[in-house]
Amino acid sequence: MSLGQFGSLGPIAIWKISPIFKGLGFGMAIVSGVVCVYYNVIIAWALYYIYQSYSVSWSSCENAWNTPNCVSQDDMKMQLNITSVANMTNLYNSSEVSRLSDSLSKMTSSEEFWLFKVLKQSTGIESIGGFQWPLVLTLLIAWILVFMCMMRGIKTSGKVVYVTATFPYCVLLCLLIRGLTLPGAWNGISFYLSPQWEKLLTFKVWGDAATQIFYSVGAAWGALLTMASYNKFSNNVYRDSLVVPLINCGTSVLAGFVVFSLLGFMAEETGKSVADVVSEGPGLAFVVYPEAISRLPVSPVWAFLFFFMLFTVGLDTQQILCFI
């Protein structure tokens, strides 16, 4: 940040001060360029889910893309009472109870929506498949929106950031307040705040932590250097170097409360432990969390807010990567 502010230059031009390190600038630009390509796909996914939010299509198994292995919310609720169902011989016979037992290992409707509707995942690399035109359209829209935000440089982008940087916090607070009022939410919060100290002895935990910090802050990607280049020369860069990581960590903690309050609710609804419903990567944002949202009253509204938040966060990040 200090280099960018001092020279008012990007990650490549700034190394005029020491040409031997110019390769670092090219490395930053290349890494950011590669990430730009696939990061916009995530924005396209968010746009597609926004479109599907009006009907919450991932909440049922009565769709063309669903398989016989699909388990809906109603099926899961029936599984919770499977013992009592077994005793009610006047309502259900043994074969029906057996069918319900078998569904315990089946795939949820939200997972099938993600795999077979959104991604249309093939059976393997030997079966590539064709273009997924809905995703092609949302990807095109995503690139057009990024272009419109950046077409006049930092002037238009700076105005857009006022919305894309503040709206996610408003949604996070709304989701947190709603999440804390749900049954089982505090079980999720307790799971989130209960450390497993023995994990600190494993290299994987430290590796994951380092990856998260470097990825979320954007260190060594050129993002901080590029943004700092627009600061005034007399700006307090020392203060900024403290504020940025503190806000980053605070946002991560807040998002954790939001996610685990709803995961605790989902665990309560399905009769599972919180550990069994926790996921990571795209599966958390596009499978587990949508599944939990679909169980809320007025679920289309909450689904729209959540995925629009993902869209604004992605658009914010994509602009910075493209500026590099």
Automatic annotation (TrEMBL):
One Pfam assignment: SNF
Chain ranges passing through the membrane: 24-50, 131-148, 160-189, 209-230, 242-267, 301-323
GO molecular function: amino acid:sodium symporter activity; metal ion binding
Family per similarity comment: Belongs to the sodium:neurotransmitter symporter (SNF) (TC 2.A.22) family.
Protein name (record): Sodium- and chloride-dependent glycine like protein
GO CC term, one of those recorded: plasma membrane
Keyword Glycosyltransferase tagged: no
Binding positions for Na(+) per the UniProt entry: 216, 248, 316
Organism listed in the record: Argiope bruennichi
GO biological process: amino acid import across plasma membrane
Alphabetized UniProt keyword annotations: Disulfide bond, Membrane, Metal-binding, Sodium, Symport, Transmembrane, Transmembrane helix, Transport
UniProt-annotated location(s): Membrane
Disulphide bridges, residue numbers: 61-70
Membrane-topology descriptor: Multi-pass membrane protein
